[in-house]
Amino acid sequence: MRELPDLIACEGCDAIYQKRSLHHREIAVCVRCGTELGRDFSRARARILPLAVAGLIVFIIANAFPIVEIELQGLTNQTTLFGAVLALYAEGMSLVAFLVLATTILSPALQLIILIYLLVPRSEAVQPPVFRWLLHTMQALRPWGMIEVFLLGVLVAIVKLSNMATVLPGIALWAFGVLTILLAAIISFDPRYLWQTVAASSDEGAP
Ligand SMILES: [Zn+2]
Question: Does pLDDT of 124 surpass 90?
Answer without folding.
Answer: no
